[in-house]
Amino acid sequence: MSGPFDLTGRVAAVTGANTGIGQAIALALAAAGADVACVGRTPADETAAGVRALGRKATIVPADLTTIEPVGRVVDETLAALGGLDILVNNAGIIRRADAVDFSEADWDAVIDTNLKSVFFLCQAAGRHMLANGGGKIINIASMLTFQGGIRVPSYTASKSGIGGLTKLLANEWAARGVNVNAIAPGYIATNNTAALQADVARNRAIVERIPAGSWGDPGDLGGAAVFLASRAADYVHGHILAVDGGWLAR
Ligand code: NAP
Q: Are the CB atoms for 119 and 140 separated by under 8 Å?
């Protein structure tokens, strides 16, 4: 008998799977047994190879999620290549930094469109399939700025706060219909996204001093949370935002 965290026979689509948190989650889902569609604008060859090395099937779905144009195709190509879509991880995201008084419309639109609008319409496209198919798991990648204000990142904070609300709304609509919608809120994780912060000696020291665990997280630290929320073990977990933050929010 398979265990409660076993994902054998499940198909996952992970956006932004070529690097960072998306890559780590794709590999963790594969290690738990899932086949994985690696979705993104940079081809995720390394991730797909890693999934196959774990004995699972992988496909690469090219998609620039700056707009919602590719969302239907992401679902269709995943179904065509892997025969299902049981798990969606909305991970792709960007950040733009500037003082609020100077923040441009372009930086507002780019972040909201990628981090929030495309996420909603991908949830909708995948959700239609999952609802018709009797169930599924959607995991959105939130942030500490789903809970806090941050500074000099107004569109990022708005997008990630929006992800928190959207996750709960979708859970309210779909929980009784077999689709679990939850989120993971990473703390400070060492990826390309945070390279500038890591390189800033003063900011880096201030950040590490405030993290109870005493260090940045590694993308692999998100894997267990993703497997849990994607698995049968989380069947009664709906609309939850699971912080994986080294204790940051507890401080
Ligand atoms: P990353 O290394 O910069 O990776 C971001 C991923 O999103 C890349 O695969 C990127 O593809 C993809 N992406 C960005 N814009 C896209 C678009 N228009 N279409 C398709 N894919 C796109 O960052 P990360 O740290 O792993 O971040 C992953 C997620 O975690 C993001 O949602 C981020 O906000 C969130 N997060 C990160 C942290 C952290 O500390 N690192 C903390 C909280 C939340 P390309 O390589 O082609 O750009």
A: yes
Q: Of the residues 193, 194, 241, which should be mutated to test ligand 1's pocket, given the most ligand atoms within 8 Å of the CB?
A: 193
Q: Where are the domains of the chain?
A: 11-190+218-245
CATH 3.40.50.450, applies to 11-190+218-245 = no
Q: What is the pLDDT of residues 167-216, one digit of tens each?
A: 999 999 999 999 999 999 999 999 998 998 899 999 999 999 999 999 99
Q: 159: Cβ–Cβ under 8 A, 6 or more apart, which residues?
A: 93, 111, 112, 114, 115, 116
**CA 22 to ligand 1 centroid distance, Å:** 7
Ligand 1 atom nearest 142 alpha carbon:
44
Given 15, 22, 142, 156, the catalytic residue: 156
